Amino acid sequence: MGNAISRDAVPSNLVGALLRAGLKMETGGLALLLAWQQRAFGFASMHSVDLDVSPLFAAYIGAACLGIFCLISYKFDISAFSRTWMIALVSVSACAGMLATVFLGFDALTGWADYLAGAVVGLASSAIMYAWSFSFAKMEANEAFAATLAAFGISSALCLVTALTGDSVQVVTAVLLGLGTAACYVVVARREAGGDAAAATPDHRPVVVRPRRSHGYIYGLAVYAIVLGVTAGTKAAGSVLSIKFELDWGSAALGLAVCFLVALVWAVSKGRLGLAFFVRLSTPCIVVMLLSNVVFPVLSTYGSLVSECVWTLVRLFAFLLMLELARREEASIALLFPGVFSLLFLGFAVGELAGQVLFLHFGSDAQTVLYVDISLVVLAVVSASFLMGNWGSDLDSSVGTGKALTPAPAHVEPASAAVERDDAVQTACARLVKAHGLSEREADVLGLLAKGHTRVSIAKRLFVSENTVRVHVKNIYVKLGIHSKQQLIDLLDK
């Protein structure tokens, strides 16, 4: 029957939706996190002057290590990912990240300790954002878009105000921002659990249900991150303290202006154009900026402001993309966030390292700069081809615009009827398990079979091989004295 926009897909008063989103605790928490990331990574960048391998590179490698951390944790004990565990993760990450921020901000470390502090900042920031993703996944599409956009605006305003203060005040403010986002998360987590931090355990099963079109888009974002990383590495390698104020102030002001422009276009277009449009529009901007580096080298320093703003837009777009895929149940948040953002941060780190090396060793060679810029232009165009690829109109228009496109069903089953049906299936399965002496694992397989799952999906959900599932199904059929799935359905209906 095609796709239809849900009744609440785009709110009638978009300006009011943005204002209401700005008052949410989740919005405030994400805004504080983004502002802290901006300041903390800025401190790491100032320690990267004249270095081939820099603390900024270590920071993004640390952020990319979230995927490894989650993979090991899932394999070790996935059931331990309770609400209490998430609160503890955010609290520990905030404390470690703030301590590392203080060391970097006050230039209290030297040598390898700078790299360690950068890695801690990166891993802590990505871990906190990982926790926030579960709260945003509970929102409707338009609600999540408005909250993310409002958080971007608030964080830009905070960075703008912070840039006008002294160095010591900036460090203290960065610490308060980090502790503030952790406090907001604790409040939200306890509210979601109804005051019981151990309740309402989020779904952390890293199970891909329907892997489809997401790969091309994610790879495109990763290539885009490499391009933006090269410009960031060039900036970090050649940063001069005398223009630090202009760079910090200009980056925050540009972010605030872009946020206002996105909100204006979103409101005027009645939700048809949003962040996705601006991510696409950023490609020609990046191309023009790279080519202008060759024609007008004096503008190259300030061109990094554009790439820094685009990098923020790309991260937020990836965040909204991840939420949309989770809503469509193509994959769980537990798999999406570590996978997508680890790939994104790794791409940026590779680009940052390349930018540092190229600037330090070939920055004075005009011919080499020309070749590098042309290569980056090609990469930007290639990544744009992924971003504008054959995705289909439903996902392409829903991500980054606030629309929630869902299939229009011929009949919607009432929630109470669905619950009653699930209860009846569970009761019938429990009866068969008790009557025929099925083992605990066989009971799990039976429950999934009764709900219509295939052997492939059962294997993924139970983290076992398909051959193991086949053996369990055979044993179930033998114990129940049946030979087909239809006979199993008949037994459940008795």
UniProtKB/TrEMBL annotation:
Keywords: DNA-binding, Membrane, Transcription, Transcription regulation, Transmembrane, Transmembrane helix. One of its GO terms (molecular function) is DNA binding. It holds the Pfam family GerE. The chain crosses the membrane at residues 56-74, 86-106, 112-132, 144-163, 169-188, 217-237, 249-268, 275-296, 302-323, 335-362, 368-388. SMART domains: HTH_LUXR. GO terms for biological process: regulation of DNA-templated transcription. The keyword Transcription regulation applies. It comes from the Bacteria. Residues 431-494 form the HTH luxR-type domain. Signal peptide: none annotated. This is HTH luxR-type domain-containing protein.
